[in-house]
Design brief:
CATH class: Alpha Beta
Distance between the termini: 32 Å
Number of domains: 1
Shape: globular
Order of helices and strands: HHHEHEEEEEEEHEEEE
Oligomer: single chain
Structural class: alpha/beta
CATH architecture: 3-Layer(aba) Sandwich
């Protein structure tokens, strides 16, 4: 791992985390609703029968309206359960079956399906602090999603605020790129060779 790239990532994470803390509740609520509306027209999500999503943190663009919309369409939604070895298990999302996990992250309380359940999803909606025009995603730095997505055959879609879609994000070879980006302003398709 390059020390300069690591330093760039750390500095950018600090900047973006501070910006997120400054957002109002109204901004976050409006962003969550707009993202869900844009998702309704996204062909990859319209065709999907099973989607991996995540339970958003208070500072992130909210995923609750999007998850509710998918479930209302009959789409089965899986949400992650972090493991101590920094791997992810998956659980079918059920309304009200959520608790705060060991890392302070909302987690499902239902029965785990195993790490392989991700491969049964058509789309994986993933969090990020930023995404660039080439689809490089900046996560929080623990690598959970990069490891989980390494062999994922479906469409990977990051969910970020409008100002977190950047021209360039520092990245390394192990960082898994995304195919689509959902923001409150709409859908962005990075320059990648996929029909989405």
């Amino acid at each position: 791992m390059s020390a300069s790239v690591t330093g760039e990532k750390t500095n950018l994470r600090r900047l973006l985390a501070a910006r997120r803390r400054d957002r109002t509740t109204a901004e976050r609520t409006g962003a969550a609703e707009a993202i869900a509306l844009h998702a309704t027209a996204l062909p990859a999500l319209v065709r999907a029968r099973r989607v991996a999503a995540y339970l958003s943190l208070p500072s992130e663009p909210g995923t609750e309206p999007l998850i509710d919309l998918l479930a209302g369409r009959g789409v089965e939604v899986l949400v992650p359960l972090g493991r101590p070895d920094r791997s992810m298990d998956w659980v079918v999302h059920e309304l009200g079956s959520v608790a705060v996990g060991a890392l302070g992250v909302p987690e499902p309380t239902g029965p785990p399906l195993g790490a392989g359940a991700l491969a049964t999803c058509d789309v994986a909606l993933v969090p990020g602090l930023a995404v660039d025009h080439a689809g490089n995603r900046l996560g929080r730095g623990a690598g959970y999603y990069d490891r989980a997505l390494a062999d994922f055959p479906g469409v990977v879609c990051a969910v970020v605020f409008d100002d977190e879609l950047l021209e360039h994000v520092p990245h390394e070879p192990h960082d898994h790129p995304v195919d689509l980006v959902l923001t409150p302003a709409g859908v962005f398709r990075p320059s990648r060779d996929r029909d989405l």
